[in-house]
Each structure stands twice: as structure tokens, then as C-alpha cells.
């Protein structure tokens, strides 16, 4: 009796996923609850476990977009006999060692088999990357199946790549560039497509405006230098800039609640709590995990949450719950060297705060020109809900709290 493995329900708003990678091959023996594939939604990557032990029969291929409930694979009863694996390997080795003239009749005799000209999952992935059609190859595997070794040895694309030399007639008009000029195409992931769609929607559907200011970072840098060793020894985490900015922003949001609100239809929803979304660059794209109730956390609790979420983002282990429901977003382009930018709002939120690189610059202080570590900050906001007075006052308040960190402790 076989068991069907289908795409599970992973969230209310998710209707389809992409099969990003098979962790097992067709015909492999798998244990119950062993992960067999990775599925990627527009919000997160998660693994698909086997629902019983048995022989895996792959149905969907890597790169396929599947709806919730779609069939991914089946698991047949039984075990994979070790002898069969050795026999298949010997047949493959024998086919590779046999001269081409002798192997053709064998290939022809297997044309009626469903496996003839069919690539294994691993081979199919290699052929897609090389741009080779499976039908153009003669498989050396069982019943003419195209193996991974066949795909790796295939050299057809190089020969064909030079064929589109017809535009060479234009070479007399356009100077020929030296060196290799290769191109490659990759299918957009569900995450990347969703990011693109949401960013364009925000630009088209909101009255987005950005206000700028600059912050003298010397007071915070002096405070960090004085207490960072004690702080790390006591709390087990480093004292970074993100916790100071988060605390300052939470304080300012309490004073200017419209910046922490959102539009829902014809209503404005005000939140009396602050869930701060932190924009993080992950291997598969930008993700925005959320620090819940950031307004009630201490500096060391914020730092621990930032580290925890950053590690999960790097390892693609963030859950959908950890990336939904934020009320305000902070993004730090300064870690990549950005000096100034206009961040795009993370819908349905109404504002996003951008941190940037710290640069020592000459500034006027008490009538004297001095060198100070300065950071440009920017806040993009939806002008439909946040007025200019509120946005500018909010940023000025954050600047005031950062340049005099004692205010954060005294709440003044």
C-alpha cells in the first residue's frame, strides 16, 4: 500500500509553494519523518517529511510551483535491497564502458519503456542548468533512463552555444568585446517574486514620502566603549546600536501613535504595543522577522532577540509566525556601507526607519568645528496617515534620545 505525500497547509495566506530541492532521490529508501524535500513559500522555507518508511517515488520536479494539497511524491511499501543497488551500479558501469556502437541497439530496444529518455531528479537539475533537453540524450541507466553521470558528461550546449553565430554579420558594425560574455537564467523564487510584487504595490498604492536627519553617534559610542565588556559578561550578548535605536523608536512611537498605525479599508488601526520588524538580508532574499512587544524589552533582551532572529534568517529557519504582524520596521543599510537611502515601507505598516553608515565628519558644536561620528537617518512614511509635522517630530525625537542616551533610562 502506497502513501501519497502532498503539499501541507503552511499558512492562511499561502496558496502555493515552490519545490526548491529534493533531499532524497527517486527510488531511495526513506525512514518515517525523514526530510525528503525542501519547499519554499513566499515567506519561508520549510522541509517536507516522509509520512511512512518505504521506497520514494518522485512525482514533482525541482523548480515546480505546486498548489496546497498537490501531490509531491508517493512512498511504496518495502525496503531497498542492497543487491539491487549493486546490480544497477554494475549495469551503469557496464553501459559506460561499452563502445557507443554497441550501446545504441540497447538504447533503441528500450524506447518503448517509460523510463527511456527520462532524467533522474539530479540529472534533470544538471540538464536544466546546462540548457540541454533530456530528449536529446541516450540514457545509459536502466531501461534507458538518463543518469546523473549522463548529465554531467553531456557537452551538447557548448557546441550549440556557438551556433547562434548568425548575428556575426553585425560584427562589422559593432566592436567585438574581448573575453567571455556568458549569461544565465534563473527562475525567480516565490520569495523573490513576492518581494518584487509587494515593493511595487507599496510605491503605487501609498503616498510615500521620506524625511532625513543626522545623528551624532559619539554619546552612544562612548557609552558602549565604557560598558560593553561588563554588559557582555553579565548578559552573554554584545551591546550593539540596534538596541539603542529600537528603544528610542519605541519611546517616540508612544508619543506619535500615528507612525505606529496602519490603514485597513476606510479605518485607521492604532496599536498600543510595538512589534518591531527588523529587515535582515538572508541567503534567499530580504526577510523581516519581528521582535514582539519590543517596547517592554530591555536593551539586553532586544540584543538577544536580534541575534536569535538573524541566525534563523541565515539558516533559513524562520517560521511564518516570526515574520508576520509587525507594526514598524527598522532597516540598517549601514552594515553594507550605505551612507543614505530612501527605504520602502513594509506594507501594511505606515513607516520604516533607515539606519546608515557612521562617518566621521566636521560639524559645528558650540561655535567650534569638531570631528564627530555622524549617521544619516531616514524615515519613509505613508502621507495618507502620517502628516509632515508628525514625521519630522518623530525623527527629531529619536535623534534627541540617541544623542542623550540618559533620556532613555530616565524616560524624559
Distinctive features:
single chain, 412 residues, alpha+beta, OB fold (Dihydrolipoamide Acetyltransferase, E2P), Chloramphenicol Acetyltransferase, 3 domains, seven-stranded mixed beta sheet, four-stranded antiparallel beta sheet
Describe it.
Strand 10 and strand 11 form a beta hairpin. This protein is 33% helix and 24% strand. The chain has 412 residues and is an alpha+beta fold. The protein is elongated, with a radius of gyration of 29 Å. It folds into 3 domains: 3-76, OB fold (Dihydrolipoamide Acetyltransferase, E2P) (Beta Barrel); 82-157, no CATH class; 192-410, Chloramphenicol Acetyltransferase. It contains 11 helices and 19 strands. Strands 9, 12, 15, 16, 17, 18 and 19 form a 7-stranded mixed sheet that branches. The chain has a 4-stranded antiparallel sheet with strand order 1-8-6-3, with no helix packed on it.
What is the element layout, followed by pairings?
Layout: E1 3-6, E2 16-22, E3 29-30, E4 35-40, E5 45-49, E6 54-58, E7 65-67, E8 71-76, H1 82-97, H2 100-109, H3 121-130, H4 148-153, H5 156-161, H6 190-205, E9 208-216, H7 218-235, H8 241-255, E10 262-264, E11 267-269, E12 276-278, E13 280-282, E14 285-287, E15 290-291, H9 299-314, E16 328-332, E17 351-355, E18 358-365, E19 368-382, H10 388-403, H11 406-410
Parallel strand pairs: 12-16, 16-17
Antiparallel strand pairs: 1-8, 2-4, 2-7, 3-6, 4-5, 6-8, 9-19, 10-11, 12-15, 13-14, 17-19, 18-19
Helix pairs in contact: 8-9, 8-10
